[in-house]
Each structure stands twice: as structure tokens, then as C-alpha cells.
Amino acid sequence: MKKMGSVRLTLILAVLLFASSFYYLPYYVSKPGMAKELEPIIEVEGGFEEEGSFMLTTIRMGRANIYSYLMAKLSDYQEIHPLEEIRAENETDEEYTARQLHMMDSSKINAIEVAYKKAGLPIEYDYNGVYVLQVIPEMPADGKLMVGDRIVQVDGKPFSSSTEFIEYVGKKKLGETVTLTVQNKDDNQDITLPLKQFNETSEKVGIGISLVDDKEIKVTPEVNVRTDEIGGPSAGLMFSLEIYNQLIETDLTNGYEIAGTGTMSSDGTVGRIGGIEKKVVAADKAGADIFLAPNEEGANGSNYEAAVRTAKDINTNMKIVPIDTFEEAVNYLEQLK
Predict the structure, then answer these.
(1) Where does the Lon proteolytic domain start and stop, copy by copy (predicted)?
(2) Most CB within 10 Å of its CB: which of 96, 152, 273, 286?
């Protein structure tokens, strides 16, 4: 009987442990991801080969259950984030994922533009409107627009960028309305929304959405960037370097394994990213020789400073290099022995 009771208790505990793994806490856990070679991901038609490699670095991010929460508490370079720090208020997992993927698409377009301009090659755009990235609760767009909706006209007029859209709406006054032509699942519909103050202390009015340009870039030779389910804008710098390296005959890698991170603006500015410490760890594990880090013009607490501290902490021989612009990264690589 005692043996039967012991077996029953063991089974009950096993079921409880299994069930608890599916109970998510109001936190996310982030940890070092991978350093992935870009040459198999990016293909420029007729592009030149390279002896070394450029690598993007990632962070693994997921909802915390009891076990991942405890593991993060006990582990170096794992971090616990409150839900509201990662996702906007009332944002679903699907909306968060969509927002990350759209930011990745924008990052790819900027990287292509910067690389082809540097190589002296022509660029053309097809502009399709703007994507809704986020809807702010209790603002006029709440319940009317969804993440992923494409806005193609405002008050019956086309526009050429999200900046132009924001400027147009910003000139209107409290209580006025805007009519948006929205494309959702290939159907167009007009939605009229009133303008509302964002908060009581601000005179700024709007409908309560954040946007990203929906545009296609046309270049010759053609380039294909396959990112699958990788989201976010932080691979922009490494995308631009890999694309440019395939466009030119000189190999910028010089046989080195070069990892890094940083957003890429269309003017070539490299921007700050989150969680750079985890990316340094990922790059070191992958055997990178060099890590390019956003310098933020030498600001206190910059990504570069955090990367240097992490490199020292994990005792890596990987060289950490501060980068502010795409041009600066190319100049550094051209001087490698």
C-alpha cells in the first residue's frame, strides 16, 4: 500500500510540474541567442564571395514560466523583464510579433539602400502606404484599426511616407476628423476618426497609432534577404556590411569572423539596440574575432561601453570596436591586416 501511495504521489507531482510549465508569469526572460553567418541568408545576384564572414547576433526572448524565471534569477546574462517593458499596453503576442517583423523589414530596406548608395548603384522605390505597428488604448483608433493594417490614403489623398502622414494629421485641431483608406486582407475601406489629445498635459493630437513605411526597394543587381522569423531592427548594420561586401570585389572581412549589432538609418547612422551584453556572449560563443558595437557618439552608458564591460567579464579575446556610421565601419574594415 505504501508503494502504491508513493507511485500515486509521484504521478501527481509529475502532472503538476508538467502543467505548471504552461503557466506563464507576467514577465519575459531574455538570454544570449546565436551569432548567425549572413552569407547564406543574403544573396546578391552575381555577388562576390568572402573568406571570413559577417554575423548577425540575436537574443532569445520568451514568456517566463516558473522554471525559466528561476533559471534567469540564478544565471548570468539572463534577464527578467516585466510584461509592460516588452509589450505595449493590451498588445497581444501576435501584435508584438507582427511589430517586430515589420521593424525587421524596415531594417532590411535601409541596409540595402545604404549599401547600394555606397557602391554607387541606382535605387528605386515603390511606395505602398504605411503599416500600423501599434494601436494605443483609449485613443480613437482603438478598436477601429489593427496591427498590420495598411493605410494607403488620408482624406482621399495619397502620401509618400509615414513622416508626411504624421505631419498632415498633426496640422489638424482637436475635434476635427480624418478619413483613412485602409487595406486589410485585400479589401479597402474608409474609416473616419476624430482627433484626440494624447494626454492632458500635451496639446498634441492624433488618432493613436505608430506607423512604419510600407515600401519596396528596387535595385540592380537583385538582392534577396531571407530572415525567416528573426524580428526587430538590430541587424541593420550587419545586413548593410554583408550586402556591400558582396557588391564590391575587395573582401572587407579579410578572413575574420566579424559579429556586431546596431540599427541602420537610411542616412547610414548606426543606432542603439537593447541587450547588447547578451549579443556579445553569443558572438564569443560563436568564435567571432571582432564585434562592432554602436558607439552613440561616445555617450555615457553607450552600447559600446556595455559591450566592453561584458567582454572583460567573460574574458574574451574578441575585439570590441565602436561604430557610429556605416561609413566608419567600412573604413575600419578596409584597414584590417
Answers:
(1) 229-336
(2) 273
